[in-house]
Amino acid sequence: MALEKITMPQLGESVTEGTISQWLVAPGDHVNKYDALAEVLTDKVTAEIPSSFTGTIKELIAAEDETLDVGAVICMIETEGGSESEEAPAEEVAKKTEPAPASAPNKAPAKQSPATGRFSPAVLTLAAEHGIDLGNVSGTGRDGRITRKDVLAYVENGAPVAPKPQAAAPKTAPQQQPSAPMPTSQVGDREIPVDGIRKAIAKHMVSSKHEIPHAWMMVEADATGLVRHRDALKNKFKAEEGYSLTYFAFFVKAVAQALKEYPILNSTWAGDKIIERADINISIAVATDNHLFVPVIKHADEKSIKGIAREITELAAKARAGKLTQDDMSGGTFTVNSTGSFGSVQSMGIINHPQAAILQVESIVKRPVVIDDMIAIRNMVNLCLSIDHRILDGLVAGRFLSKVKENIETITKENTPIY
To answer: Where do the segments described as Disordered lie (predicted)?
Structure first.
């Protein structure tokens, strides 16, 4: 028999940590290779961690609601075919992480370390709800990190889970605390629990607004030709292909074409450099009743309008069924959001960090416009662009928007093939 360690995988290009939202196994459970061990939450997606081995779960190193860096040990598994000498390094890893196993709830917590200054959203929310100074709570998680269970135990006992270490936290890693007291419920209010996906969305949006200096601009485009072309094809297309030919597919294609001409919009801020992405992978926002997902159409510039329409349909269906994979969600380089699908005519999107921009496609509305000194009724649409002002200035962003506008306004039956 041999002890093997399961570590926190990297669930995305820019993901550096993950939070164990739920264990799907317990010590003593037998698992096969690739069986799901736990659900993990990142700022990108909720995913399952598969087992790398067939064997028996020996110890859960990480606690639920605990946030760990990529590569950190989360559990130990006993496999067949190894020698007992392999157990020594595994035990060493377990000692280094100093977990609080379920079988020993009274075990002393790990020594406080700089890592204890980082709290999961669940810990911060609980602390705010109960008016708790997290500096008074000792953690039983990895490296002394405070978990949700530690806070609950503090609330129930009115004292720290274990004696608080005397050593002061390093000045370089101050403890994070809510900037203001959380609101409290009043009589008649309804409290809605914040689930893991909503927490991840909140964290991602705060990160984007905190790190990225947003700027915004809008242009108006005449989509009359687009509307006529799509409406003439939609019924035949649906009958032959089995899915809808949406206006949004045309917009995604128009944006992908414009990004080829203005690739700086397809980039990422990286501190001392800007990384201009070679692939044009369009993230699309898909809303369900309670959540927002951002799956990705890979190599959108190389796809036909039919191919884009198919991927939009498939990704939206997977999002609403809760079946999006990490691959579906990763690799996006620019986001296009169909805010017009629910009637919006003007909006300012929050950039999908670490991308450089997001385009909101608003509702197509019939309006009187002046053409050749005459009034005509046209199908008009607002295109709203939010940009990372570290990477982009108004000049290049304006030229990009003008190109998207041109691509849309020149869509006709004669010059815009679907296939």
So the answer is: 79-116, 161-190
Q: What is the pTM of this model?
A: 0.62
Residue 80 CB coordination number (10 Å): 10
Which of 24-33, 175-184, 393-402 is the least confident region?
A: 175-184
Tokens coding 164: 């608080």
End-to-end CA distance of the chain: 57
Annotated active-site positions, please? Answer: 389, 393
Pick the closest to residue 324 from 45, 49, 21, 50 (CA basis). 45
Could you tell me if 111 and 82 lie in one domain? no
Of 150, 167, 184, the one marking the end of a domain is 167
Q: pLDDT for 36-59, tens place per residue?
A: 899 887 765 667 888 989 999 999
Please check whether residues 225 and 365 belong to one and the same domain: yes
Which residues share a beta bridge with 371? 374
